[in-house]
Amino acid sequence: MEKKKLETLVGLLNGLPFNQMIIFVNKVDRAKMLSKLLNDKEYSTICTHRDLPTATRIDNYDEFKKNNKRIMVATDLFGRGIDIERVNVVINFDMPETKETYMHRVGRAGRFETRGFAISFIATNEDKQILDDIQ
């Protein structure tokens, strides 16, 4: 896991007021790793991705929706059709591969006529190109 990105994320978690947050990554192994790293740093996270059994994904979704966990680390599996009222921050720890996926991800924040915002980590030339396409 990239040290600078992780340090920046921890800084945001320490200084950013939020109700609930979704942190998106592009791969299952990165979701598992980031969730473990954050839990090891005593940030109570929950994780969801395609390798989890359906029952576990549903349980994790319910825990998050009930606000029992404030931070969800997720792959794009969680990027569509998820409406959780308290999510006001989305972080693209990994930039999505397309602008359409970006729109689905950031659309998870600010639902139900509340304010929300997104933060995207731009670490590579490919990330910058996706950002340029979005803008």
What does this structure look like?
This protein is of the alpha/beta class and 135 residues long. It has one domain: Rossmann fold, CATH 3.40.50. It has helices spanning 3-15, 28-40, 54-65, 99-106, 125-134; strands spanning 20-24, 45-48, 71-74, 87-92, 117-120. Strands 2-3-1-4-5 form a five-stranded parallel beta sheet, sandwiched between helices. Helix 3 (54-65) links the parallel strand 2 and strand 3 (71-74). The two termini are 27 Å apart.
Annotation keywords:
five-stranded parallel β-sheet, globular, 5 strands, Rossmann fold, 17% strand, alpha/beta, 135 residues
Summarize the structure.
The chain is α/β, with parallel strands linked by helices and 135 residues long.
Strand order of the largest sheet: 2-3-1-4-5
Instruction: Please bin the fraction of helical residues.
Output: 40-55%
Q: What is the straight-line distance between the termini? A: 27 Å
Radius of gyration: 14 Å
The major β-sheet equals: 5 strands, parallel
Strand content: 15-25%
Corresponding CATH architecture: 3-Layer(aba) Sandwich
Residue-averaged pLDDT, rounded? 86
The helix/strand series, from N terminus to C terminus, equals: HEHEHEEHEH
Classify the secondary structure makeup into a structural class: alpha/beta
CATH superfamily: P-loop containing nucleotide triphosphate hydrolases
The CATH first-level class comes to Alpha Beta
